[in-house]
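Any chance you'd type out a single protein's sequence alongside its tokenized fold?
>
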Amino acid sequence: MAEQTKETNVENVDINQLLKVRREKLAELQANGKDPFTITKYNVTDHSTDIKDNVAAYEGKTVSVAGRMMSKRIMGKASFANISDLKGNIQLYVSRDSLGEDPYKEFKKLDIGDIIGVTGYVFITKTGETSIHVETLTLLSKSLQILPEKFHGLTNTDMRYRQRYVDLIMNAEVKDTFLKRSKIISAIRRYLDGLGFMEVETPMLVQNAGGAAARPFETHFNALDEDVKLRISLELYLKRLIVGGLERVYEIGRVFRNEGVDTRHNPEFTLMELYQAYTDYHGMMDLTENLYRYLAQEVLGTTTITYNGIEMDLGKPFTRITMVDAVKQYSGVDFNEIHTLEEARAIAKEKHVEFEERHKKGDILNLFFEEFVEEHLIQPTFVMDHPIEISPLTKKKPEDPNYVERFEFFMNGWEMANAYSELNDPIDQRERFAAQEALLAQGDEEANHTDEDFLYALELGMPPTGGIGFGIDRMVMLLTDSPAIRDVLFFPTMRSLES
């Protein structure tokens, strides 16, 4: 019988007694001068999946691997075990004759969860399983806790997020998701670096949290005796760098928004923003389309992705549609025919679209978009030309100043990116900030304060610039078919257990 079965399946076993036995085993090792915690390194030559995927090249070759023992089957003079490392798992064949009588006795005392290093030669068992015939075995770290037999399912979702390290140990698919996340971010950097973009870093603690419509977190800087905020966006500092002559810049970093938690929102999340001088929002559309196509091909090996059973084709040209046309298509309401705020309010009431007294015509258009359109945008779609009321940092469309050169990128009914032809007129920008200050005075906690230093930078002169912000976490969700943002964050925000 496998030790894993004996240890974890007996419901009536006193867990405290099992934990006590593990500590007694450690004390015995230490008393015999074999304390595993004194070992400082182990020479790993190969990983499990590399061996299994290239068994023809490895068969008969001596390898050294290390990992966590996930199971063992004691069978008299020979036993089998399985260890898990970064890339996967592999079977070990451990015999008394090869290992030696005393080392074999020590192996039999090992617990599930112990971290071991083994050296031996690769062979294929009679049942066709690639294995390592162990010749030396070293206990590298003693596990003093008992791993759960299973660590999935709805009943354990909360604990999986709180104890991600256990989740990673027990669920190979979880580890694969985070390995893909790392590959996605690396691929983004390769792509942008290849286009001549420069990666930069900007402040997280700021006096003025601007660049987005969001309520910031606030804290206190003791040394300066000043209240400061955690950034909600990367935008205003990156634009300062464009003013300074850095023509293509990007940052991948954490931002913080004091908002609720749901399947697509976490109060701290990873945002990437980039700014490119001498282009506009059409240039940002081209970059976005090419970037997403590149990422899917690099990480998944295909430009057709599947999320929750729905296929999305990144290989075809992405749809481009104005917000007005999208609202007309899905609601039947043509905002080109609505000329006054009163008319907008009347049609909103008729269509049962709720609005607030402070909302202007452009705000109501956006409410129609959210109500009638978003859920239909499954395939990659750029929704262009937003109303000026919801776009305080964006350049107006020359032919119609009620709208701005902005797009949002949608897939699976989600907003995936937000891009502008950046506003570089400091006089216009000051007027936009004044409108935001008026909203603040009316109680809108997500409106922006005037940023005088940013205005000064614009007054020095900023070239025509295209800018975009990508939600990295949602991007990872789509490319890994993960149902919730918490599934792609190692340590999502959780309510404390004490509260």
